[in-house]
Structure formats: structure tokens, C-alpha cells
Amino acid sequence: MKEKETVRVDFESRSHNEQFARVVAAVFAARLDPTVEEVEDIKTAVSEAVTNAVIHGYENGEGIVHMALTIEGRAFTVEIRDDGVGIPDVKKAMEPLYTSKPGRERSGMGFSFMEAFMDQVSVESEPGKGTTVRMTRQIGSEGLL
């Protein structure tokens, strides 16, 4: 049986907390002795998910971003959840270049980056109830779930 360890952190939906989330994820992932590239990939994916929660989930208003980090075997999973406005059409939102805020210099590539840097990405959302982004990355050469 694989040993499982989880850490949970809640923080205010402020853009400067994106850096905090990146560092927490990197430090927790370090337990698996990842490569520099693996750490950078995780940090990039976490940045995108947290930024989405702050900018889109709470629309730059106040709220709490919930982050859960789990290690099970060589699998590193991060879950970013907000209790914000939710996404009416997740499939549409995950299309490359789609943005719900076209006038605000958003590239619409957040989900694409998450999918590029992590092995698995799932998004659950309900309008008015928030969004949960769950991302998993295998760390190291063993690569088995």
C-alpha cells in the first residue's frame, strides 16, 4: 500500500498569494526529490490555477482559495478550489485562447498550461458555487500511479 500524505492551506484571494502557493507546492513536492524541471512545471500549473481562482473565481473580490497537496507513491496532486462565481461551461473555458475577460490582457491559456505541465487535469465547477481544479504529476522515473 502506498503511503499518502496531505497538506491543506487556505489563503486570501489576493494576487500576491499566487507566489506563496507556488512556494508551498514546491516545498511539499521536494519530498519526492523532483528534478528542477518537474518543480518548475508544478509551480507554473499552480500559478495558473491560483490566478484563475483570484481573477475569475472571485473576480478580484474577496474570498478564500483552498489548496490541498497530496503525495501518494510518486504521484503529486494539487487541488485548488474557490467558492466563487463558478464556470458555466467548463469545456468551453478549457479551450485554448478562450477567456471570459477579453479586455483585461488575459491570454486564455491557463488551462492549456496546466494540461501541458501536469499529467492529469480535471475541473469541476458549478455557477454560483465555485470551481475545483485537480492536477496530478508523476515525479521521477518510476512514473506509476
Could you write a compact summary of the structure shown?
With 145 residues, the protein is an alpha+beta fold. The protein has helices spanning 17-29, 36-57, 90-93, 110-117, and strands at residues 4-12, 64-72, 75-82, 120-126, 130-138.
Features:
single chain, 145 residues, alpha+beta, Heat Shock Protein 90, five-stranded antiparallel β-sheet, 4 helices, 5 strands, 29% strand
Specify the overall morphology.
globular
CATH architecture, by name, is 2-Layer Sandwich
**Annotation, overall tally of beta strands:** 5
CATH class annotation:
Alpha Beta
Largest sheet: 5 strands, antiparallel
Give the full name of the CATH homologous superfamily.
Histidine kinase-like ATPase, C-terminal domain
Cα-atom Rg, whole angstroms? 15 Å
**Based on helices, strands and strand pairing, what is the structural class?**
alpha+beta
Q: Spans of 5+ residues with little confidence (pLDDT < 50)?
A: none
User: Order of SSEs, N→C?
Assistant: EHHEEHHEE
Percent of residues in helical segments?
25-40%
Here the CATH topology equals: Heat Shock Protein 90
Biggest sheet strand order reads: 1-2-3-5-4
Look at the structure and give the mean pLDDT.
88
Give the termini distance in whole angstroms: 12 Å
Number of domains: 1
Strand content: 25-35%
Helical element count? 4
